[in-house]
Design a protein that fits this description.
Layout (H helix, E strand, L loop, with lengths): L1 H16 L17 H13 L4 E9 L5 E7 L4 E8 L4 E7 L2 E6 L1 H8 L13 E4 L21 E10 L2 E9 L7 E7 L6 E7 L3 E8 L24
Antiparallel strand pairs: 1-2, 1-11, 2-3, 3-4, 4-5, 5-6, 7-8, 8-9, 9-10, 10-11
């Protein structure tokens, strides 16, 4: 009777609280989907988002630590910031076909290779067409590549900020020495919560949060824009 009672109790818990209870169908311990299917489901879920916040941290071997923060609709509207250990920072607001860009004083000094005469902080924005942005210029296009690659295998159940997840280790033959660990939520929707990458030259950690939260992105006020009318031809 004791064994039957335990089974009945567990069944009632699953029916009452749903599949988010540990031991219910669909949790990390009983999920029979392959690692690749779990990853595909996570990508499908992420691609359907209307908003998400993405934090990135990069540590380069014998190099400078940097961070990024992107809040986006994954289409044409986002805010983005890159920061470096040196204090350099670059802010971006993209709204449709317009970019607003604000490099701080340390960024300008680092980019130019020389100290600027003024010690005042640079807090003005530059307005430009987003069509002028090119890969490698340090700006975001508001999208994110949720595309499967490499070979995935299941690892251990884990947590990301207190949220239950399953770790999936992915290796790619084109990236010798590099390993990705994808953390997929096992309660509720299968969101991709975190991606760790360990390579020979650098390491990155990317976390995803604020899923489907209202996205409000406003342009800077006119008095915050830098007047470039007298510059150029």
């Amino acid at each position: 009777m004791g064994k039957i009672s335990t089974v009945v109790t567990a069944t009632v818990a699953c029916l009452t609280l749903g599949a988010t209870v540990t031991g219910c169908s669909g949790d990390a311990a009983t999920d029979e989907r392959s690692a690749q299917q779990l990853l595909d489901d996570a990508y499908k879920t992420m691609k359907s988002l209307t908003s998400v916040t993405i934090n990135g941290e990069t540590t380069v071997t014998d190099g400078e630590h940097s961070t990024t923060l992107l809040t986006t609709d994954l289409k044409t509207t986002c805010t983005f910031k890159s920061s470096w250990e040196s204090g350099a920072a670059l802010d971006q607001i993209r709204i449709g076909e317009t970019d607003y860009i604000r490099p701080n004083r340390a960024y300008l000094d680092q980019w130019s290779g020389q100290k600027t005469p003024s010690a005042a902080e640079q807090d003005r924005w530059v307005k430009k067409s987003s069509s002028e942005s090119v890969p490698g210029d340090g700006l975001s296009d508001c999208t994110w590549p949720f595309d499967a690659f490499g070979k995935a295998k299941k690892s251990e159940p884990t947590e990301v900020d207190g949220r239950p997840a399953i770790a999936l280790v992915v290796t790619d033959v084109e990236d010798k020495g590099g390993t990705y660990t994808f953390h997929v939520a096992t309660e509720g929707k299968p969101y991709l919560l975190k991606v760790d990458y360990k390579g020979t030259d650098f390491r990155t950690t990317t976390t995803f949060s604020a899923f489907e939260e209202p996205l409000k992105v406003d342009p800077p006020d006119d008095d915050e824009l830098l007047d470039l009318s007298g510059i150029g031809g």
